[in-house]
Structure formats: C-alpha cells, structure tokens
C-alpha cells in the first residue's frame, strides 16, 4: 500500500470539523492534502496556513474551481447538509471520490440522487462517521456476533448528548433550518442510530416511533429527541440525542447471554486507546447481595486516531479503483442510506405528532 502514490484529497469547505479531518489526512499514510476550497480565496488561504497544509496545496477561491482541479482524486465535503445534494452530485460528475460529512443529506431522496451520481461515474462515497473505523469497533462487532458470550441480541440503547452554550444554540449551523436543518437528530442522533443499526447487523427496524417531548427551537429545528425502534422478531432499541444535556455517549447492547457497554463510543476518552466492558452469564451470589461474574473491561490500542483510520480506509478504496480498476465498495453508501432512512423516520414521527412510522419496503 505504502508504495502506491498517496491519494490526493481536496478539502471542499473550511468548516470547523475540517480542521480535525485535515489532521487525519496528514496522519493517514496513503493520503495527502492536495487542495482546499472556500467561497473566498482569503478564507481558504488562512485555513491552509492555520492547519499546516503543505506548501504545494492549491488554494481555490470557489467550490467550482476545486472540482476542475485535475490533481485532486477525491474530495472531503464538510459543507452544511443542505448543500450536499448539489455539490456531491457535481463532484461525482467530475469523477471525484467523495468523503461526505454526516448527515449525508436532508433526506433519503436527496441521498439517493447522490448515490445514483456516484454509481454512474464509478466513484467511491463514504460518510464521515469516524467511530466505526476505530479498531475497537471491530472488537465490539466480534463480541456481538459471539453466540456463546453474547447470544442473541434483545435490545440496544444508544444516546449522544452535549450541552450547547448560548452562542451555539443561537448561531451554530446545526440550529439553522436552511443549513443543517436536521439539528440534534442529524448531528448527534446520526451516531446513536448508526450504533443501533451496527448492533443489529444493519438490518433496518420495522417501526420507528419518536418519544413525545422532543424540543424544537423557534425555527422548528430539533434540539433534543428520542425514539423507539422495533424489529420483526421482537428486538427493540431506543435512541436519544440532545444539544441540551451533559456530554454523554453510550451504547448498551443486551443479549440472551451477555451485555456490551461502551461509554465513549463516538470520541474515545483518550486518543491512543479505547475501552469497552462485557459481561457474560452474570448472576448473583447465593444470598443475592453481590454479583458473580462481574463485567470485564477490554482495552484496544489505537496507533492512528480513528479519523485517520477512516481516511486511510477511504484512500485505500479510492486507490483500488484508481490503480487496479476495482469497483467502488457499496457497503458504505448502503449503511449511510440506512442511517439516513431511520433519521428521516424519527423526523417524520416528530412532525406527525409522534405517530409510529413503518419502514417496511423503504
């Protein structure tokens, strides 16, 4: 892999999250930052300087301009969600592979248009959900699929909340209907939904029902909400997301034989390692005053931060297509679409006074 020339990535938009992903591109062994674009040349220049971009980085004063750059293989697109459908399609039509920030679109109909453009032009698309690339996640999946230690999944709970300050709640693009109009659901709920889908082997639920009590701002953007999900065989899940509660990010998955718990699944407590706890066939002592078989903690070392693992995998797929004529990997757009479908269903349920939404056939 290291012998191939690095994949040349252009950063399309100078959002806050682009700082973290720029560092990840620097750290990924098979990728390099080739260009950056903003709607103003000045902003692109100062972004490149303050993020230590290589001297050779091309600076573009418009999004159109970076699309035409022949020295860019792929684009990282951290634009507001409402702009994804236009710019991701235009990128695909120019043959650029796409690492697209989440949520991938305002709704699944928009995302389907993006995927159609990617398929028509043979380009890879992957969303920017970083935690699924953490080496810990492979270990979580291993435990969840272990019929002895975990058994059959019965229920999963996942939440992600953080307390936005006054400035965030007034000015952040995630509270503006015309920008990231899916609010806390698209931003934080995306992760909790992805976690419940991952635990369910990416099988879509049959029904999605939002809990009464969602909080919306004056512009109608969701600041906090929750939902229950059900599957045909009786599996259930609950998700909760909020901009109004203390920083918390949890997965609890309960099976017939075991339980999995993760307390920092989106951003690990430490960059260099990530932990999770498992318990199998837990029970009480004879007097029922204590547990026997208490949960055990497992720690996975991470040589590269998870966002760099994401870039490395994206660049690997792009390299396979560019250098070996491989086909794009359909796994990534498939799980993006499923996550977006559930996001859409939660929003639809909130909009319809917490009605149960059926996902069968979608």
Automatic annotation (TrEMBL):
A molecular function annotated in GO for this UniProt entry is: nucleotide binding
Q: Which residues form the Gfo/Idh/MocA-like oxidoreductase N-terminal domain?
A: 7-126
- Chain ranges of the GFO/IDH/MocA-like oxidoreductase domain: 145-261
Matching entries from Gene3D superfamilies are given as:
Dihydrodipicolinate Reductase, domain 2, NAD(P)-binding Rossmann-like Domain
Q: What's one Pfam family here?
A: GFO_IDH_MocA_C3
| Position of the signal peptide | none
User: What family is this?
Assistant: Belongs to the Gfo/Idh/MocA family.
Q: What is this protein called?
A: Gfo/Idh/MocA-like oxidoreductase N-terminal domain-containing protein
């Amino acid at each position: 892999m290291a012998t191939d020339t690095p994949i040349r990535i252009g950063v399309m938009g100078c959002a806050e999250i682009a700082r973290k992903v720029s560092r990840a591109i620097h750290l990924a062994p098979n990728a390099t930052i080739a260009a950056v674009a903003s709607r103003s040349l000045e902003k692109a220049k100062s972004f490149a300087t303050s993020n230590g971009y290589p001297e050779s980085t091309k600076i573009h004063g418009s999004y159109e301009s970076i699309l035409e750059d022949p020295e860019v293989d792929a684009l990282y697109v951290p634009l507001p969600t409402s702009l994804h459908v236009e710019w991701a399609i235009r990128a695909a039509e120019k043959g650029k592979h796409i690492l697209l920030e989440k949520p991938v679109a305002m709704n699944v109909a928009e995302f389907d248009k993006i995927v159609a453009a990617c398929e028509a032009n043979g380009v890879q698309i992957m969303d920017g959900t970083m935690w699924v690339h953490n080496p810990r996640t492979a270990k979580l999946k291993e435990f969840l699929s272990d019929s002895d230690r975990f058994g059959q999944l019965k229920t999963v709970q996942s939440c992600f909340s953080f307390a936005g300050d006054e400035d965030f709640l007034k000015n952040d693009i995630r509270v503006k209907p015309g920008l990231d109009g899916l609010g806390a659901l698209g931003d934080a709920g995306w992760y909790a939904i992805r976690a419940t889908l991952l635990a369910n082997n990416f099988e879509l639920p049959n029904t999605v029902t939002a809990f009464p009590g969602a909080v919306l701002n004056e512009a109608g953007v969701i600041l906090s909400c929750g939902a229950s999900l059900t599957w045909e065989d009786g599996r259930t899940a609950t998700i909760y997301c909020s901009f109004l509660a203390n920083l918390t990010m949890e997965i609890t998955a309960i099976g017939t034989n075991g339980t999995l718990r993760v307390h920092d699944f989106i951003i690990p407590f430490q960059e260099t390692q990530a932990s999770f706890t498992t318990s199998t066939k837990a029970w009480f002592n004879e007097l029922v005053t204590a547990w026997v078989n208490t949960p055990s903690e497992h720690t996975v070392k991470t040589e590269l931060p998870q966002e760099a693992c994401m870039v490395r995998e994206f660049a690997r797929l792009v390299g396979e297509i560019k250098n070996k004529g491989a086909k794009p990997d359909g796994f990534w757009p498939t799980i993006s679409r499923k996550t977006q479908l559930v996001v859409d269903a939660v929003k639809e349920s909130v909009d319809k006074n917490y009605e149960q939404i059926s996902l069968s056939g979608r």
